[in-house]
Amino acid sequence: MFTAGGTAAAAFSRSRRFFSTSKFHDAFGSAIAEMNKEMEVVFGEVPPSGLAGSVSTNPLVEEQQPQLKSQELPLSFTDSNTAQELSRHKFSHIPDGGDNNLSGLTHVGSRGEAQMVDVSAKDSTKRVAIASCKVVLGEKVFDMVSANQMAKGDVLTVAKIAGINGAKQTSTLIPLCHNIALSHLRVDLVLNPEDHSVEIKGEAATTGKTGVEMEALTAVATAGLTVYDMCKAASKDIRITDVQLEGKTGGKSGDWSRGKV
After folding, report:
1. pTM > 0.70: yes or no
2. How many CB atoms lie within 10 A of CB 191?
3. Has residue 77 got a pLDDT over 50?
4. Which of 27, 53, 135, 235 is the most buried (most CB within 10 A)?
5. Where does the record place a coiled coil (predicted)?
6. Residue 225 domain boundaries
7. Are both 46 and 129 inside the same structural domain?
C-alpha cells in the first residue's frame, strides 16, 4: 500500500526524470546543430540531399531517408556487364574503327584501351637511337667525384654499367615495350666543370621491327639515377635533368634529330 506522501514522491520522481530527459534531448540536438555548422565552415555548405538531411536536430523525430533513384546513376550496376558498360561510358567519345587510335598513339586502341603494338607485319631494318641526360652535382660533390673520393667508389664506372644493364631491362620496366635484341649499346659519362654536372649520353642499336628509343632513354635515365645514388650521402641537392631523345634513324617514320626539328 502506498501512502499519499509516497505517491506524491513517486510522481515527482517520474516528472523529474522526464524533465531531465527532455533537457538531454535539447542539449543533444543543439550539439548536433553546432557540429553541422562547424562542418560547413570546414567542408563548405552541405548540399540539400545527403548526410546533413539524415541527422535531425531533434532526435525524437525520425526522418525518412532519401531513396537513390536508379535513373540518377550514369550506368546500370545491377547486371553482369558492369565492366563493359563502364568501358563504353568512359570511352564513348572515341570513334570506333579498326586500327584507328587516339591522335596516332599506337599504344592506345580504338576504344582507348592500352595495347602492345603488333609489329609482325613490319620489315626488319637497322635502327639506332641516341639519348642524353644531365646530373647537376654542385661544386662540392663535383670535386669529390672528380677526385674519385666518394665512399661508394668510382661513380662514373658504376653508373656506366648500370646504364647498360638498365637498357637491357627496358621491356621489363616499361610495360608495353617490345623485348628486342640489342646489337649495340654504349653509355658515356663526362664531367662538365662549367656547371658542375655529369653529362650522360647513350646509344642503342638493333636490326628489327621496332625502334630502340626507349632503350637509349632507359640507359641514360638509369645511369643518372645511379650517379644520384652514389653521391646522395654527400648532398641532397643533386638534380637529374634533361632526359631526352637526341636522334634516331631507321624505321617507317624515318630519321629524326632534335637539332633539325
Report:
1. no
2. 14
3. no
4. 135
5. none
6. 125-260
7. no
